[in-house]
Amino acid sequence: MIVFKDTLEFMKRLPIQKELTNQHRVFRSHIAHFWNNAQYDEKNDAINSSVSLDGEDKAIIITEQLIREVLDFPDDENSPTRFPERMVKGCMLRMGYTGPLNNANYFESLFIQ
After folding, report:
1. Whole-angstrom distance, CA of residue 35 vs CA of residue 100
2. H helices of the chain, where?
């Protein structure tokens, strides 16, 4: 457990910690069905799709506000929507990452075990 201490401390400070640690059962077929039927609505800045529930298709509308509510993001103008690159790189180094930090791909095998 000591190996993951820095990782756990970092995750506790993230506003999305709840969704990173909660586990939900999601089936690949459900995701595929959602995205196969998804359309982006530029006017309302939302994603429209449909899901099948008890044999009946139901409309699903996903907006930024809905995502903020589900993830328990604070909803004020000072809440970050992105983390500064410097902060992300610093956290990766503190968590023991030894790979290159100049690309967006971080590999699990490059963390010090």
Report:
1. 32
2. 5-12, 17-21, 28-36, 64-70, 85-94
